[in-house]
Amino acid sequence: MNSADLIQILFFAVALLLLCPLAGRYLQAMLAPDRSGALALPERIVYGTCGVDAGREQNWAEYARALLLVNAGGIALLFAILRFQHLLPLNPSGLPGLSWHLALNTAVSFTTNTNWQSYGGESTMSMFSQAFGLTVQNFLSPATGIAVVLALVRGLVRRETANVGNFYVDMTRSVLYVLLPLSLLFALLLVWQGVPQNLEAAVSASTLEGAQQTLVQGPVASQEAIKILGTNGGGYYNVNSAHPYENPTPLSNALQLLAMLSLGGGLVFLFGRMAGDKRQAWAVFAAMMIPLAIAVGCAYWAESQGNPFATPAGVDPALANMEGKEVRFGTVSSVLYAVFTTAASCGAVNAMHDSFTALGGLVPMVMIQLGEVIFGGVGSGLYGMLVFALLTVFIAGLMVGRTPEYLGKKIEAREMKLAVFAALIPMPLGILVIGAFAIALPAGVAGLANPGPHGLSEMLYAYTSATGNNGSAFAGLTANTEFHNSLLALAMLIGRFGPIVPILAIAGSLAAKKRIPPSAGTFPTHGAIFVALLIGVILIVGALTYFPTLALGPVAEHFSTLAGQQF
Amino acid sequence: MFNSLRQVGGFLLLMTLITGILYPALVTGAAQLLFKDAANGSLVMRDGKIVGSSLIGQSFHGEGYFHPRPSAAGKDGYDGAASSGSNLGVATKSLNDTIAERAAAARHDDQPVPADLAMASASGLDPHLSPAAAAYQIDRVAQARGLPRERVEALVQANTEGRQLGFLGQPRVNVLALNLALDDIARAEAKP
């Protein structure tokens, strides 16, 4: 590893260690229960207009019902906007309405915080659709994640109550006081670096050699900011953050990398503050940072090996594998982005994962398959991680024959059943079962761009990304067909609401329990042993479930590459 | 039932107003006020006409211009309305055949070809070359333009950006800026 690359990697490690606790402090101030004066006015207006009694809390079932209603309404609204964009204003290029299956896929995709895109933004979406359709869900989907994690943490720290919070209050505060101000600031920083923000659909340029070039523009920065901060990942342009208008400079790239993980990491420290025990937060944070560092190391090593077929053809191996990478980013920034975006369930990309080396492409895939809990999506990362924490104390409890406890709450049969349902069923169902249909049926295989084991990787990545609500792709797959759009939409719904409902049930069940003081036999959940066990559980669940498929895709591709075999 | 419908409908409508209309409008206003040039796409003007954007790569085929990276955007490459990478994998034969063809076409003096000249970018609109890829083309450009090699070399130097803030990203050369500088020399010499 050269020293310039090492410095960049170390910079991000230090920056995350400083930024995430700060974000936790900010989150606590903004989501705090009591606020008065002028700052309280915006949220009061929302409650007044919608007829929400902010003082009345909900039990878990009411909370879940409100969540599902808002999300179903969001899908319906976005579907209608996309289907009929040709009848709506701000469509100067006269783009047609989307097909039913693309509109459905996209509506589900943006509502579930996946932001899988079966289309190229610049050639498909009117400005109205981008701003008034997609951007709204870019705010509401991370807010939904924050709401669920707030309910779960309340369940852990409250005692003997049925209430887990008020869904509309949590949503409103997340949008108005967390996502909106941060996005405004971030969007302006991006414009400063060169991201366009205007209401021109496109500018025509005549190049030095006399050709015509269409420069597609519009309100890019405002969508870009919330795309990253909300771990949404849905780009304005087809190639996402590899496009020089979405990510023009190394600095804009660094800001995006940090923004991607800061809210997910900040929520961990908010959890520590709500639990009144910061050591709990540091333990969970360590269980995120360590796998992240290992993944960066592996992917960096793999991509630095370059393309073994290019060197004999007369290509200088110094820059390694530049296919699908931008010069301003090079190997190290591309690898960091690939790992962060899949760790974070963001799904934005600044390089084409499909053109990574076999093992370089394996790393992002594995990061998603670990359950999107290494930082993970805003909210969804932490609630997934806390479910793994429950599994860990349960396994530790089995070893010593004691009823497991977490934060003073006894974890009993009901919580364990729900945790197993949340952590172990939705992901494999979407990736392995639905993915198997896609790879087995001719209608599914038709869209592959690459032959051989890389073709399987392409398909596996698509269903992994959809179920993990990530949204990045091995983009060679032509997914804009009735077949893939429908199946991927189903996978996204399973991957999102499959865990959310049982997790809210866990929150309700834990909130009702007494809090028992720690005794000599309590397994401490803030030490190195707990961190190691937690990482072990995450790795074993991920590795055992998907290893056979990975062996047939990226691993087979790696070994055939070593043997000089092309497809 | 009616109450929960009012809550859902009101909430979605209000959030559409705030995040879908108010937020982009605020950002647009502030961006146009503070960073007018960047907010409008960092356009490059020449004789009152838009010749491109300093952020977006464009095609150059002439011997006297520095050539950009191979591009998979659109049919002929560098289509600003169809950004795309090749999305082909390292073990895919069609990709490696293309790389070998490009390397053979660019290769001179038995020097290995810099990877960014043989491999397509992620966006298909990469505005940059690595310093090595620019250096690799100096001889051809100098010869085609009838300029001394040192002069072209100095231009490449002048148009090379280092790592941002001293440590972020990679050193790079903006192809459009470099080719504009070459044209400037030609113009200055045409006027006695």
| Weakly predicted, low-confidence segments of chain B | none
Helix content of chain A: 55-70%
Tell me the span between the first and last alpha carbons of chain A.
Answer: 30 Å
Instruction: Tally the beta strands of chain B.
Output: 6
Q: What number is the mean pLDDT of chain A?
A: 94
- Give me the number of helical elements of chain A: 19
Tally of structural domains of chain B: 2
Number of strands of chain A: 7
* Shape assignment of chain B: extended
H/E topology pattern of chain A: HHEHHHHEHEEHHHEHHHEEHHHHHH
What is the 3D shape of chain A? globular
Q: Classify the beta-strand content of chain B into a percent band.
A: 5-15%
Q: Give the topology string of chain B: H per helix, E per strand.
A: HHEEHEHEHHHEEH
**Class by SSE composition of chain A:** mainly alpha
Strand order of the largest sheet of chain A: 1-2
Oligomer: heterodimer
Number of helices of chain B: 8
Structural class of chain B: mainly alpha
Characterization of the model:
The complex is a heterodimer of chains A (567) and B (192). Chain A is mainly alpha-helical. Chain A has 19 helices and seven strands. Chain A has a domain of 139 residues. In chain A, the strands form three sheets. A two-stranded antiparallel ribbon of chain A has the order 1-2. A two-stranded antiparallel ribbon of chain A has the order 3-4. In chain A, a hairpin with a 2-residue loop joins strand 6 and strand 7. The longest helix of chain A has 35 residues. The radius of gyration of chain A is 23 Å and the shape is globular. Chain B is mostly helical and 192 residues long. Helix content of chain B is 49%, strand content 9%. In chain B, the strands form two sheets. Chain B has a three-stranded antiparallel beta sheet with strand order 4-6-5. In chain B, a hairpin with a 2-residue loop joins strand 1 and strand 2. In chain B, helix 6 crosses helix 7. Chain B is extended and about 80 Å long.
